[in-house]
Amino acid sequence: MSQASPLYTFPQPTIKSMRDLRFGSARAKTPQAKIYEISKTDMSIQEQQPAELYTSLEELSDALPGNTPRFIVLSYPLITTDGRYKTPYVLIYFLPVTATQQAKMLYAGAVEIVRAQADVNKLIEITDEEEMLEIESLLNE
Amino acid sequence: MSHQVHSLGHVPISDHSFSTDRSKLALARDISVEIYDTGSKYSLNTTLSGHDKTVTSVDIAPQSGRIVTCSQDRNALVWEPSPDGTYKPTLVLLRINRAATYARWSPDEKKFAVGSGARAIAICYFEEENDWWVSKHIKKPLRSTVLSVSWHPNSVLLSSGSTDSHARVFSTFIKGVDERPEPTIWGDRVPFQTLCGDFVSPAGGWVHDAVFSPSGNALALVTHDSSITIVYPSGPEQPPAAVVNVSTTLLPFKTLVWLSENEIVAAGHDCHPVVFTGSDQSGWALDHSVDDPNDAKKNASSRESTALNMFRQMDLKGTPQASADDASLPTIHQNTITKLRPYAVSGGRVNKVSSTGVDGRVVIFDV
Description:
Chain A has 141 residues and is of the alpha+beta class. Chain A has helices spanning 12-24, 57-63, 101-118, 129-133, 135-139, and strands spanning 32-38, 45-47, 70-75, 78-79, 85-86, 89-94, 122-126. The longest helix of chain B is centred in the C-terminal third of the chain and has 11 residues, at 307-317.
């Protein structure tokens, strides 16, 4: 399912924002993340306003809405169990249980498209803001 | 002491709620909710049918007039009144997999709490962003069906009575919906689902009802061991200042209402309300019975004790005494009273309570 869906669109600012994050975060020392949402009006993928580059998991967790899904592109530098440095680049699909059916379906349809556009290695699904803080253990396996 | 009695059919009433001006009465009966216009005689106005199984609870919000109903079909509905007198239902997804047992609006009407058989309490609030009702669950220490919930005046603390014999006080603070409450005797920093108190009655038994006092500084619970327990907390994370238990030889109570800080009325399987009085200093005790069956027995007019009557009775009933209470109970209610609600306030205390039960009657008692 790699063909572009006619429903979801990627405006230029979003494409640029994703590209900046992908190439800008390779050598960063802190986590780098951006939150993306689907605009209700024209079904386009846009950065959540106010647009910000989050550098800590706590800030990121606080910025997430409690009841609507979101896509988060995260670059997280860490040291593996055998001592190597690595910086995984992942897409986090935040899907709270309290979201409306309509929202769940809207975001579910866009997951693959966003994954392809953001050019990430891995997809992680979380259902709770608290799970965000434990992401390191998931990334380190 | 004349009590108003309204016999509105024989189908058991699970719950009732009056509107603030007492002009409307909502009765939860079988799978629908009946709205009556009150007056000297109660007449049926509309019937709200939206549930597939028995409606277990109904509550009318004091200011906005919105009605919340919950049912054994695992759903809750919020009924919005429209100007022409009809109600429009909105489904609330509670996300529980067992029956809902009890629903109440918070005093500020921004949220409502629903107890359920799924060992969880669903706290529901309306989210403007998504234009629908969201429900958050309190699950952590609950180990069995929640039988009742009751709000503290600050709309953040909630007490719950459960069949695991515990009455618990939780915080239901929701960021974005509630303002940070003033610190109370139950706790200061209160994030969602914090357990602020956990109480058991000495002999154990299901907690049928657990209600905060009008000030919110005490908690009364009625349990299936036929006793009433009043808890006075001393401070957060500390053992309570006083836990007073009054054991009775009556049948268990199912419901209670605080008349003032020093008086409680409870009712249950004995079919008549009973008043307790006391305080944290002097302790609590049973004061008197309202609609006392013993009084009724004494006042029962003695029938003519002629020989003819005696043999007539023997033929009819098998015993020579004409006992008037064979066919019916001496109390006004003919079956268990399941819900008491405050009806009228005068001089700082509740002086009338409304009651409904399994016999399908609505009675307003003077207390």
